Amino acid sequence: MGQHGKARWYSLALFFTGLWLPGPLFAEWTPLAEDGLHDPDNPALEVMQNPGDALSRLPRDDAGDVGNKVRWVQALEQGYIEPRTNIFPETKIEVLDLDIIMKHTGSTAYVRFPHKPHTEWLDCSNCHDKIFKMKAGETPLSMLAILSGEYCGRCHGAVAFPLVLCNRCHSVPPDTLENKVNQRQ
Amino acid sequence: MSERHAIPKRIRATALAMLLLGFFALPVFAEYGDVILNHRAEQEGMRPVIYPHWFHRIRFRCKVCHNELGFEMRAGANDITMADIIDGKFCGMCHNGQVAWSVENCDICHSGRKGLKTRIMGGHETGGPGRW
Question: How many Å lie between the alpha carbon of A80 and the closest alpha carbon of chain B?
Answer without folding.
Answer: 9
